């Protein structure tokens, strides 16, 4: 079908990233993956999707605007 090969481990990374994008807490993802450290989960298994990054920038900009001295 012309699709790239996918390893089971790749699916694990994808599942962790999708869970993070869905708002699942890092400690829950850590537990589900069986990691002893959330640092391993965050640094190795979690990808920041473009939409999340844009949302974070927008939220930060809105916070700055709401606290700006416009007087």
Automatic annotation (TrEMBL):
Q: Name one GO molecular function term.
A: DNA binding
For this protein, the record's Gene3D superfamilies field holds: Intergrase catalytic core
Q: Which UniProt keywords apply?
A: DNA recombination
InterPro entries per UniProt? DNA_brk_join_enz, Integrase-like_cat_sf
Q: Name one GO biological process term.
A: DNA integration
Q: What highest taxon heads this organism's lineage? A: Bacteria
Q: What's the protein here called?
A: Tyr recombinase domain-containing protein
| UniProt organism field | Paractinoplanes toevensis
